[in-house]
Design goal:
Number of helices: 13
CATH class of the largest domain: Alpha Beta
CATH topology of the largest domain: Aspartate Aminotransferase, domain 2
Structural class: alpha/beta
Number of strands: 14
CATH superfamily of the largest domain: Type I PLP-dependent aspartate aminotransferase-like (Major domain)
Shape: globular
Order of helices and strands: HEHHEHEHEHEEEHEEEHHHHEHEEEH
Strand order of the largest sheet: 2-10-9-8-5-3-4
Largest sheet: 7 strands, mixed
Bound molecules: pyridoxal-5'-phosphate
Distance between the termini: 69 Å
Length: 386
C-alpha cells in the first residue's frame, strides 16, 4: 500500500489557477504596486539574521521615521492594520483601564472592540458614519468622562472616506488630560495625508505597508512616544508576539526582529521609500489632495452624491452613494469583469448603499480618469441620468 493509499485525506481537487487580468485596482488598499517594487520583491531570499537584512531594516526604519516625523523608533511586525490596533492596546494598558474611543466608522469600531476584548473599560464617543469627529462635541464629552488612561482615534476612516482633524483633537485631549495616551490609527492616511507624530504630540501611531506605501500587505509599522514607552513599562495586558520591548531590544542590538520578518515585503518597502523620497513628502500629499478633489468632483459632476461632501472628505478614499435603482454588487461586478476596474463596496450598515474608490499609494491621474469614465459609462447604461 502506498503512502497515498494509506492516507485518509485524499489529495484535494482544486480549481485551476487562472491568470488575473491587468486591473485598475481602485480599492483603498491593497493598492497597485509599481513594477520597480514588484521586481524588488522578487529578489532571492536572504537570511533574516544576516548583515544584508540588518542593512535593509536600518534603512527602512530611518526613512519611516522621516515619514512619521518622529524621533521615536518605528517598529515593524509581520501583520496587517488590525495587528497595529491590537499591538497598540496590549502594549499600553492594563485590565480595567478606562479608555475613550472616538469612532466615526467601522475601523474606529474595530479598535474599540479590541480594547473591549482585552478587558478595558471602553467609553465610546460616536459620530454618524460619513461625518468627522466634531472637536467641540469631543471636548465637551471628554470633560465629563475624565479620568481616562487613553483616547483611541482613527485618522482616516476608510469605511466612510472621512479624515479626522487629528491635530485639533490631539491638542484638546492633551489640554484636558496631559497624561492620557493618544492612540492614532493612521492605517489609510500615513504618508498620504499630513501627520506629524512628534510635533502633534501623538503617543502611538500605526499603519500598514499595503496602504500609502506602494507595497504589498505584510508589514505593520508602529511608533511609540516617550510617554507611551513609559506606559509600556507598567502595562499589564498579556502580550508576546507584539511585545514592544522585545522588538526594541533586538532592533537596538542588531537590527533584527524577534520573529521572522516579511523579508520580501521589506525588499519592496525599501525601494518604495526610495521612490517616495524622490517624489517628496509634500508632493505626495499634494498628489493625494488632487486625487481626492478629482474623484469627488467627477462623482458630483455625474450627478452622484458623496457620503462625505464636506471639508473632512478623505484624500485617500472616496465613498459614493449608490443611486436609487442601481444594485451596488452588480455594478461593481460589471466594472470588475468588463472594465477591469475594481472598486470596494460598503461595510456594515453601508453595505449595498455606497461603494468606495481608493486613491492612495501609487496611482496616476489617468488611472483615476479611466476608473471614473468606466463608472460613468456603466451608470448611464443602467439608466442613471444624475
Ligand atoms: C483605518 C484602518 N484601520 C484598520 C484597518 C485594518 O487593517 P487590515 O485590514 O490590514 O487588518 C484598516 C483596513 O482597511 C483601516 O483602513
Amino acid at each position: 500500500m502506498t503512502i497515498q493509499e494509506q492516507n485518509a485525506i485524499p489529495i484535494p481537487q482544486v480549481e485551476a489557477r487562472v491568470p488575473v487580468p491587468a486591473q485598475n485596482l481602485r480599492v483603498p488598499g491593497p493598492t497597485t504596486v509599481p513594477e520597480q517594487i514588484q521586481a524588488a520583491q522578487a529578489a532571492p531570499m536572504i537570511n533574516h539574521r544576516g548583515p544584508e537584512f540588518s542593512a535593509i531594516a536600518k534603512r527602512v526604519t530611518a526613512r519611516l521615521q522621516y515619514f512619521y516625523q518622529t524621533e521615536s523608533l518605528v517598529m515593524t511586525y509581520p501583520a496587517s492594520g488590525t495587528g497595529g490596533q491590537e499591538c497598540a492596546i496590549v502594549n499600553l494598558f492594563s485590565p480595567g483601564d478606562h479608555v475613550v474611543s472616538i469612532t466615526i466608522g467601522s475601523f474606529g469600531d474595530r479598535l474599540a472592540k479590541i480594547a473591549v476584548a482585552y478587558g478595558l473599560q471602553v467609553t465610546r464617543i460616536e459620530f454618524p458614519w460619513g461625518q468627522a469627529a466634531d472637536p467641540a462635541a469631543v471636548e465637551a464629552r471628554l470633560s465629563e468622562l475624565a479620568p481616562y488612561r487613553g483616547v483611541l482615534i482613527t485618522h482616516n476612516e476608510t469605511s466612510t472616506g472621512v479624515t479626522n482633524d487629528i491635530r485639533t483633537l490631539a491638542t484638546l485631549v492633551r489640554n484636558l488630560s496631559p497624561d492620557a495616551l493618544i492612540v492614532v490609527d493612521a492605517v489609510s492616511s500615513l504618508s498620504c495625508i499630513p501627520l506629524d507624530m512628534d510635533s502633534w504630540d501623538l503617543d502611538v501611531v500605526f499603519t500598514g505597508s499595503q496602504k500609502g506605501w506602494m507595497s504589498p500587505p505584510g508589514i505593520m509599522m508602529i511608533a511609540a512616544s516617550p510617554r507611551a514607552w513609559e506606559a509600556n513599562k507598567t502595562a499589564r495586558l498579556p502580550r508576546f508576539y507584539f511585545d514592544w520591548e522585545m522588538t526594541r531590544k533586538m532592533l537596538a542590538a542588531k537590527w533584527q526582529h524577534p520573529s521572522t520578518p516579511a523579508v520580501s515585503i521589506f525588499y519592496a518597502l525599501d525601494v518604495a521609500l526610495d521612490m517616495m523620497l524622490e517624489e517628496g513628502r509634500e508632493a505626495i500629499f499634494e498628489r493625494h489632495a488632487q486625487a481626492g478633489s478629482y474623484v469627488r468632483e467627477r462623482a458630483k459632476g455625474m450627478g452622484l452624491q458623496l457620503l462625505a461632501d464636506h471639508p473632512n472628505a478623505s484624500n485617500t478614499v472616496t465613498a459614493i452613494k449608490t443611486p436609487d435603482g442601481i444594485d451596488t454588487k452588480a455594478l461593481l461586478k460589471q466594472l470588475r469583469e468588463q472594465d477591469h476596474v475594481v472598486f470596494a463596496g460598503g461595510q456594515g450598515p453601508l453595505e449595498g448603499k455606497i461603494f468606495r474608490v481608493g486613491h492612495l499609494g501609487y496611482f496616476t491621474l489617468s488611472e483615476l480618469e479611466q476608473a471614473m469614465d468606466a463608472l460613468e459609462k456603466r451608470l448611464r447604461e443602467a439608466g442613471f441620468q444624475g
